Amino acid sequence: MSECVMEEEERAESVVPSCVSLKSDRSKDYPYNFGIRPQGSPLKCQKRSASIGDSSCPKGEKKRRTELQTADLNNSVSQGGELQEVIEGHKISLKRRCEHVTEGTHEAGSGTLLNKIYTELYITEGQSEEVDTQHEVRQLERTSKKNIRDTPIKCQDIFKVLSEQQRHIRVVLTNGVAGVGKTFSVQKFSLDWAEGLENQDISLVLPLSCRELNLIRDEQHSLLSLLHVFHPTLQKIRAEDLTVWKLLFIFDGLDESRFSLGFNKHQLISDVTQVSSVDVLLVNLIQGNLLPSALIWITSRPAAAYQIPPSCVDRITEVRGFTDSQKEEYFRRRFSDEGLSKRIISHIKASRSLHIMCLIPVFCWITAIVLEDMMTRDQRGELPKTLTDLYSHFLRVQIKRKKQKYGGKQRPEELTEADKELLLKLGRLAFEHLEKGNIMAQFLQEGGPHGDHLFMIN
Ligand SMILES: Nc1ncnc2c1ncn2[C@@H]1O[C@H](COP(=O)(O)OP(=O)(O)OP(=O)(O)O)[C@@H](O)[C@H]1O
């Protein structure tokens, strides 16, 4: 999909690390969030403390030890309670950030509820074999018609052992093309967990966006300090807690990572307090040298997934997008006006290319934005039937929204000379980068009237 999208409020703020906030501009909105179900941490602490005893001790020493054990136990119990609080706080904060997606001109955090618009995705275990070089409409058409022998799997089940042949699933790699819903899946998985609905055997879910990890690429960290940086609510968590709890690390958007993950040659790290470069920490986590019992979920566009050696991966899944009935469900959920959703659905069904492209959720979103605008406000124009039509209208709607949000003297529909110049420059930039084979690039336009703007060719 070649699109040049202006990054603005259209994307939800990344819910991952709040302290290193960078507005996302991948397919659109994102966020994550996590919670925890402490698996009785005080109990585990008690066990650890109680094992200190040694029957071969002399009497005085034994008494002293007993006293020490009791103190340690009390300490652990109170720390366990404190830990529980920290975890609950983290859960609440992540839930808050995960439950909304910010779209349109909504202020960050006040957008649509994820659960209102989230539509079940078609996810399979396994992945398509070949890299497809056909035009994307043909590609998608073939994909949707392909006799898929891979097994459908629900997002919330990706770490579950589903058949007798399967062993423990520690590392899951989820592939999917741009805009197919990988980040939304991460967000939904996290929200369900934070709300206590799914995967409650996991103590702590830790989402880390690869894009945001890039920001500390040149820094040295231990795994513990890295967590503190990206999840400040977990400041009080200690090294030993990480080994006791069942953790899930989620690395979303491997394709955006600028790390070179050297799986063949790297420093071995098994201590969560040992400082190293971030890429070395990631490799050790994925390989299981560091926190061997932690679960790891990596999402990636297919072209970048090769970075993870197959030997490290216990399960590969692929987000395939929406089936035909899920496409309809998406539009029904999105619009409370039933008449409008019916009209949109029948328009999409009548246009072969739009219908095929709506396999990809982000395309459903673009279609929804454009058709809603045209059907409710601008009824004169002919509805777009081709992709070029649709993208042109999308650009127009985005410019209009930007003007509505930031104000301005001219009518929102009108393009100023400056708008036209900017659009032509963006077009030229996109074209030049596509010619160079850069299918994804970000540019920062500094000093704009409303601060910096991030543009992405994607
Ligand atoms: N399950 C879903 N229900 C409703 N809308 C969805 C769903 N999945 C994705 N979308 C829509 O598609 C957009 C893109 O999804 P998402 O960001 O999750 O894609 P992605 O696979 O992570 O893309 P990229 O590889 O570009 O990061 C979302 O912002 C949302 O508008």
UniProtKB/TrEMBL annotation:
What InterPro entries does this protein's entry cite?
NACHT-assoc, NACHT_NTPase, NLR, P-loop_NTPase
One family from Pfam that matches here is NACHT
- Record-annotated NACHT domain positions: 170-304
Is Repeat a UniProt keyword of this protein?
yes
Q: Which SMART domains match?
A: FISNA (SM01288)
Matching entries from SUPFAM superfamilies are given as:
P-loop containing nucleoside triphosphate hydrolases (SSF52540)
Q: Where is this region: Disordered?
A: 43-66
Assigned keywords, A-Z? Leucine-rich repeat, Repeat
Matching entries from PANTHER family are given as: NACHT, LRR AND CARD DOMAINS-CONTAINING
What is the name of the protein in this document?
Nucleotide-binding oligomerization domain-containing protein 2
The species this protein was found in: Takifugu flavidus
